Amino acid sequence: MSSPDPHIDANGAAGLLQEVFLAEVTTAQRICQSCRARRPLGAHPAYAGPGVVLRCPECGDVAATVAVAGTERVFQLRGTWVFSA
Question: Structure pTM?
Answer without folding.
Answer: 0.72
